[in-house]
Structure formats: structure tokens, C-alpha cells
Structure prediction request, 312 residues.
Amino acid sequence: MSTKEKLLLILEQNRHRDVSGEELASTLGVTRAAIWKTVGSLERDGHRFDAAPNRGYRLLSHVFSAQAVEALLPGGLAAVRYYQMLDSTNNKAKELAAQGCPHGTVVIANEQNGGRGRFERCFSSPSGGLYMTVVIKETDVTCLTAAAAVAVCRAVESVTGQTPCIKWVNDVLLDGKKLCGILSEAAVSLETKGVDWAVVGMGVNMVSESIPEELRSVAAALFDQDPGDAARARLAAEIVQNLLTMPLSGSAMLTEYRRRLSTLGRAVTVRAPNEQYEAVAEDIDEEYRLIVRLPDGAKKILYSGEISVKTS
Prediction:
């Protein structure tokens, strides 16, 4: 982490008080002149400070940054990396995971120009949304996608008071429209046949006006107007903390995921690579597979595929 990044993190963590130039210089091992120059650089990036002689510096407002998110997390829980533009946060996270980055590394982008959903579909990722991927290592990833959906629902409830739900397997809905898409990917060891690491990407629509016109009938956003970078940082931190601290296996997760599903008991259309058919979604099993009942009464377990809920 650079001196600039460290300074911003300290000021993010101490927004309630003034931090003297002497304290900052001592903590970072640089001169007070270097602190002054670094603050000037941060101001050019868009951050705003209250500064005065004999009093020090206090962060008043900020642009979205890795430090803004990390300051809201328990120390050491996650290492956040922020980029203005990426093709895909999942691609960057996979690159970092292959290079040996630690469990809990978080990649966030202001915008993506190559965002992907399931089945290699394009995922619209304009500036203003929340696009992030978390690297997961040394833990059970069987229900990673489900856990991410639960983490997003919890975070949305905490930050906005709204209550989203989950459509099996990887969509978070708000008022019946898609609020968040989730894509999990993993690297499997050829020697052990186990998972070396996994990444789970989440894209949340933050502001209605950022959604392309052609998608507004099917996509939802958390806010009608831009809530500011502080709200985006808080939502990101809430998602990360929920995902990295909740148990990724066991009955509690399964129970919460099942409770949040909007799919169960509904008539659905199932679309698989080589077939399409009507069914009723009845339950999910312990491996988060969807159990559907066919018109003839037979039951089928879906390992993957896509469903749409019939509205009439």
C-alpha cells in the first residue's frame, strides 16, 4: 500500500476527529511536508478536507475508494482493491488469486466494459453501480453463490431498509425486478481434484438513471437518485463482512436461503441447454439444487439451468 493509500485509510478511520500532521508523519514514517503534499494529491482526486495549523486534518467528503470500504470493516478481514475501469472484476480477481493473493481479497470497479453473467451473457455495468468480486480460499464453496445472495440481501436491508428476495439460483430481486446478478467461478486442482480458490462476483444496480432504458422494465435499482459515495462504500462493506463472516455450510445458511427465495411454490418455466418445460418449484435440497414437480407429478432435481417465474 502506498503512502497515499495509507494516509487516506487513516483519515477514513478517524473521520470523527482531527489528526495532526505530526501524528500522521510519525505513523507513516515520512515528513510533515510529505503529508501536506499527499493531502494535496488526494484533494486533486476529489477528496475534501478540513485542515488548519496546530489542529491537523479531518476528512470531510471523499470519492469512492478501497480505503473508504476498508475503514468500515474489522481490521484484517479483507484487502480491498479499487479500479476506475476493468473489463470484469471476476477476471481481475482470478488473476490475483492465481498469483497467490490472500483469502478475502476484494476487487471493486467503478465501471466494467466486459461484465459477464451466467452462460457468458453480457452484464450491463455502467458507472455508478457497485461491481465487486471476493476471492474465497480454504473453505467450503458448495453454497458460495447462495451465500453471496444472502449477503447482498442482508446488506441491502441494513443500508436501505428495503427487503429484496432471491430467485434461484443467482439473482437478487427487488419488487420483482433484477437488482443484483451473481457469478461464481473456481479453479480446480488437477492433483487433488479439490478447489484451489473461488471467486464470487456481484453487480448491484445503485441508481435508476444508470440503468439502460431497454432494461428498466426488468431491472431494479436501490435509489432513484445518486445517494453518494458513502452509501456505496457502506453497501460494499456490509456485503463483504456478511460474506466473509457467515458460515458457508450448515443448516442455518440453508434455512435463510430457503426463506429468502421467491421461487418456491411458483409455476416456472425451466430452460436447459437442450430442453424447455413447465414445472412447479417445490423446494431446494442440501446442495442448493432446485426440486421441481412436473405436470405428470414426477419430480426432478435441477443442478443448473435457468428458470423464469410465470406471472399468470
